[in-house]
Write a structure and sequence with these properties.
The structure is a homodimer. The first copy, chain A, is an alpha/beta fold. The first copy, chain A, has one domain: 3-Layer(aba) Sandwich (Stationary-phase Survival Protein Sure Homolog, Chain: A). Helix content of chain A is about 30%, strand content about 30%. Chain A is built from 8 helices and 12 strands. In chain A, the strands form 2 sheets. Chain A has a 9-stranded mixed sheet, sandwiched between helices. In chain A, a hairpin with a 5-residue loop joins strand 9 and strand 10. At the A-B interface, helix 2, helix 3, helix 4, helix 6 and strand 8 of A face helix 2, helix 3, helix 4, helix 6 and strand 8 of B.
Chain lengths: ~270, ~270
């Protein structure tokens, strides 16, 4: 008699914390696809990248939210991966992160994103991951019924495909971004380099002392990139990523190093 | 009469803050190579990766430390890049970061490192950068006279070469790591994938409530990697990096997406 296939273990996480409607859309989409655990940062941790908490301890609490169990960790999304793996989850077969309120488009945003940071951190551990984000401004937009169903269906189909077939060869992470409108198509595209010009604005507090806000203005999107696909064409962008940081074979670097070696007293 | 060449603008930063002896070794090494500005996080920001501060304002203060001017910013190394560029520095020709107390070896560590994060963030803006780290445990080790001179000389030679010749073609960032001993050689090597197994330890506070510490045990270093070069062979490792996140051309991803497109009601 053939054995029933082992149910995959799925870690559901995000960087917006337990009260994000995007988290629960993601949960609904994948809850029947395996043994599903929800472990998230206890407060929003946008733009923490792959940051880790090494200099202070972390807390974890088990909550029930609308009847569903969620563990909250007092750290970053990358902390969540390690705490989850070493406590309630073990090594998952797949990490899904999101659905983020706001897009995570371009290398610039991907590398600072907590949503994508969680799956990149998992990738370092050899665990495949999918990050989902939606180019909406407000949590309420995620909950509009037709939009919610649409996102949920595509999250479920994509996650099912990856669980069934495995993460495609050579790919560590899929970065998926939904437009703010009901999408008309899905495109597999590369990430743009930049999404925003980054500026700061200087203000003065009531005591006259300056403070600074970081902010960005959208840069024009190059066709064929994730930014253009989602924001200009209203399509869903799927960007397959390898674990970042590419070593560059460079004869010039080798030559510079050889020259320096000749100048140093060893 | 030929014009004197324009002096390059150099931004000196780190993730350990203004009191790190490594910062001032770096400053001494490059101070005669251009117009040098020192802008750093006001407190240590290890392991913040490319994290940005978007949800609260930042402060910047000008300090004098042993007669040298240093600006301190209440944010991450990536925040420092943007604040510096938009206030006291303008767009620099080169960013140098470090010298970090502790190595920044392996993809795992590089992506969570604030020291490397600063130069990767600058690379997104098209600015070349060099990150310097030393595999020492204590700040005092950096100040041992022969070690200090040795590090200072190599930092100066490498920075001079990059200023003189430009960053080698195809390279965005150089990640340089010194062993804890006086190095015997420099090698150009790729980054290992991992430096540490990541674990957590559970303890109980005096009230009996659990808390967790993230920590790592070194993994065995593969020959030919940065980890092996610095920690096993006692050489300096220079790792040329491209701006991370590689798009992967994957027919499998395209096929999965085509299948999903057929299942969705658009």
């Amino acid at each position: 008699m053939p054995q029933a296939p082992r149910k995959p273990t799925i870690l559901v996480t995000n960087d917006d914390g337990p009260f994000s409607p995007g988290l629960w859309i993601l949960y609904e989409a994948v809850k029947d696809l395996g043994n599903v655990h929800v472990v998230v940062p206890e407060t929003p941790k946008s733009a923490t990248g792959l940051g880790l908490t090494l200099h202070k301890p972390l807390r974890m609490n088990k909550l029930s939210y609308s009847g569903r169990t969620v563990y909250v960790v007092s750290g970053t999304p990358s902390d969540v991966i390690y705490v989850a793996m070493n406590t309630v989850v073990g090594k998952p077969d797949l990490v899904v992160s999101g659905v983020n309120i706001g897009d995570n488009l371009s290398v610039q945003v991907i590398l600072s994103s907590g949503t994508v940071g969680a799956v990149l951190q998992a990738a370092i551990e050899g665990i495949p991951g999918i990050a989902f984000s939606a180019a909406v401004d407000e949590p309420e937009e995620m909950e509009e019924e037709r939009y919610r169903e649409h996102v949920l269906n595509i999250v479920r189909e994509l996650t099912s495909a990856v669980l069934r077939e495995g993460m495609p060869r050579g790919v560590d992470v899929l970065n998926v971004n939904f437009p703010s409108v009901l999408a008309r198509d899905i495109a597999v595209v590369r990430a743009a380099r930049k999404r925003f010009t980054t500026s700061i604005v200087k203000r003065r507090d009531p005591r006259g002392i300056p403070y600074y806000w970081l902010y960005g203005q959208p840069v024009e999107a190059e066709p064929g990139t994730d930014v253009h696909t989602v924001l200009e064409k209203g399509k869903i962008a799927v960007t397959p990523l390898k674990l970042p940081v590419s070593y560059v074979e460079s004869e010039e670097v080798k030559r510079i190093v050889e020259e320096i070696k000749g100048k140093i007293t060893w």
